[in-house]
Amino acid sequence: MMHGPIFTFLYWVVRFGLFLYHPIFKVVGRKGVPKTGRVLFCCNHSGLADPVWLVMALYKDHMPRIMAKKEAMAIPVLGWFLRTIGVFGIDRDGVDISGIKTGIKCLRDEQQLLIFPEGTRVKAGERRPGKRGAVVLAQRTDTPIVPIYLTQKRRPFSKLTCVFGEPYKVEFSSRRPTEAELEAATQDLMDRIYALEAGA
């Protein structure tokens, strides 16, 4: 990932622009976030800039790899910038073996990874079932999950809050979880994420 002068310049430009839109940005529970070692950050998804807000919440020197929709990687300039800072694309509509393998490699290399289990942006007041990819990655790499909640309902200049939950590990009865176990673990993850709204 790039952490040179270009990245630093763009980081502060983007940060300035975002804080003009949401001048009050509150972060809750960051002290419990592991600073080293493999971690899977899982957050609800309501806005296009959510990945950037998460980076802001973690600080510039604590940036995770980010799994994003593959369409974003094809956008000129933006795609180059995303790849440079460590973002990689995944096909949301099918089984993307390459994207899954990249995620597994990131975690086994003791990197931290951010994904949005819902797979798409969700409007305020709505809930969508999560996709199983998050719990599969966590189970295959023995990685703790940190659930995160970002304010869903947003208006220009309104307060935006990011709440970090306690790390936890998914547990199954065997190394090959059943379909029912995967569904239950995914629902538990989404419940943990939205339960954090109370702290926002």
From TrEMBL:
Keywords: Acyltransferase, Transferase. One of its GO terms (biological process) is phosphatidic acid biosynthetic process. It comes from the Bacteria. The keyword Oxidoreductase does not apply. Residues 39-153 form the Phospholipid/glycerol acyltransferase domain. The keyword Transport does not apply. One of its GO terms (molecular function) is 1-acylglycerol-3-phosphate O-acyltransferase activity. PANTHER family: 1-ACYL-SN-GLYCEROL-3-PHOSPHATE ACYLTRANSFERASE (PTHR10434:SF11). This is 1-acyl-sn-glycerol-3-phosphate acyltransferase.
